[in-house]
Design goal:
The complex is a heterodimer. Chain A is an all-alpha fold. Chain A has helices at residues 2-19, 24-60, 63-70, 72-78, 87-100, 104-120, 130-141, 148-156, 166-199. The longest helix of chain A has 37 residues, at 24-60. The radius of gyration of chain A is 21 Å and the shape is globular. Chain A starts with a helix and ends with a helix. In chain B, helix 6 (100-114) runs antiparallel to helix 7 and helix 7 packs antiparallel against helix 9 (153-176). Chain B starts with a helix and ends with a helix. Chain B folds into two domains: 1-40; 42-176, no CATH class. Chain B has helices spanning 2-26, 31-39, 42-65, 68-83, 90-95, 100-114, 119-130, 134-144, 153-176. Helix content of chain B is 80%, strand content 0%. The radius of gyration of chain B is 21 Å and the shape is globular. The chains are: A mainly alpha, B mainly alpha. At the A-B interface, helix 1, helix 2, helix 6, helix 7 and helix 8 of A face helix 1, helix 2, helix 3, helix 4 and helix 6 of B.
Chain lengths: 200, 178
């Protein structure tokens, strides 16, 4: 699906450029995109280096394991395929808590570390495991308690009560996260069912 | 309320920064060495993501800058009129999963044109705040560990985004009126 979306965006962009007789727009856009991509990654370096360092201390001190034990039921429900006590669980939970409290900066490094741990359990390193898909589902729907960026923007634009969208945002994010988790479950079951028929 | 909220987000990171090393020291972990060990992984991880993110952002940039995105928005317009979804906010729904920066700029323009306390402003704010940029998250997370086949992850992400959009529309209309 990613292949088709990628192709679709590029081809329809080139066609749109051609129709307007401005094909140079395509070239400029492509180079700008490439530049932005590198810039985002460079911006990630400092955040990743810093948070992965902090998180290693937490892991060495046993804090992540403690968090995983404390929230074991949540993790068991969402990630039944990950063995108990596996380091991935601690990182998954820190990623979820960072998202929840609006620490977007910290959430990415923890999520990436969780992916790395999940990759160690992956029999086929080029294909996503169901656990990875679940982690992604939770992150793309991003369960947030306080939408800090939006509140800040509303303040700037002179809102009378910038925080009055907190309730509606929590409702919407809860809905999208629940849908994400349910869909993820459903697709996972379907995948496991086809795997079983193929095996037998 | 706002004071508490800003206070919490301001204090959270400093408290975490003090708590983790303190706790670790009590548990006899050589904190600085641990930090360096973990931090080493940051650079290669960021570099590993570059090809994935460049590939994705090139496509998104071409799609957006050439007006192709604008064209598809036009295609959807009659459909929106039929279900009474506010067409001013619809571009945001289409942009949100694809480009985080583009979506944020669009919210900014809604705030500027209609005001943050208008129905459209609240709807746009709720939509922006309630989900993440699916394509970006997918690219970065899978890119960092070299996953090429993402199975159903993108489908789930996009469908959840759509559910979030409907939920935002429903709740903002219910609480703040159209």
């Amino acid at each position: 699906m990613v292949n088709y979306i990628w192709l679709f965006m590029i081809v329809s962009g080139v066609v749109a450029g051609a129709i307007q007789g401005e094909l140079d727009l395509v070239t400029m856009a492509a180079l700008k995109g490439a530049k932005d991509g590198v810039a985002v990654c460079l911006g990630l370096i400092s955040i990743l280096v810093f948070w992965l360092g902090m998180m290693r201390i937490a892991e060495d001190a046993g804090l992540l394991q403690k968090l995983a034990k404390l929230l074991n039921p949540v993790v068991r429900f969402l990630f039944p395929g990950v063995p108990k006590g596996h380091p991935a669980l601690g990182y998954i939970l820190s990623n979820m808590s960072a998202n929840l409290f609006g620490l977007g900066n910290a959430a990415t490094p923890m999520g990436l570390k969780a992916m790395e741990e999940l990759q160690k359990l992956n029999p086929d390193p080029k294909t996503a495991t169901p656990a990875m898909c679940t982690l992604l589902a939770i992150n793309t729907s991003s369960l947030t308690l306080i939408p800090t960026t939006i509140i800040g923007m509303r303040m700037e634009h002179g809102s009378a009560n910038p925080t009055d969208i907190i309730g509606t945002t929590i409702f919407a994010t809860l809905c999208s996260t629940i849908v994400a988790i349910l869909l993820d479950r459903w697709f996972r079951h379907r995948l496991e069912a086809t795997n079983k028929t193929n095996a037998s | 309320m706002l004071a508490i909220v800003t206070q919490i987000s301001q204090w959270m990171i400093p408290i975490i920064l003090a708590f983790i090393p303190l706790y670790a020291t009590v548990r006899r972990v050589p904190v600085y060495e641990s930090f360096i060990d973990g931090a080493k992984e940051g650079f290669p991880t960021a570099i590993q993501i570059i090809p994935h993110l460049v590939g994705m952002m090139v496509a998104v940039s071409i799609f957006r800058e050439t007006g192709a995105l604008q064209f598809y928005l036009g295609v959807f317009k009659p459909l929106l009129a039929r279900v009474h979804f506010p067409e001013e906010v619809f571009p945001l729904g289409l942009m949100r999963p694809i480009t985080g920066a583009g979506a944020l700029a669009y919210v900014e323009s809604i705030f500027r044109t209609y005001g943050p306390d208008s129905f459209l402003g609240r709807l746009a704010g709720t939509m922006q705040g309630s989900t993440d940029t699916t394509l970006y998250v997918l690219t970065v997370y899978f890119g960092a560990v070299g996953i090429r086949r993402s199975r159903y992850a993108l489908k789930v992400g996009l469908m959840a985004d759509f559910a979030g959009l409907l939920a935002a529309w429903f709740i903002v209309r219910l609480l703040f009126g159209a």
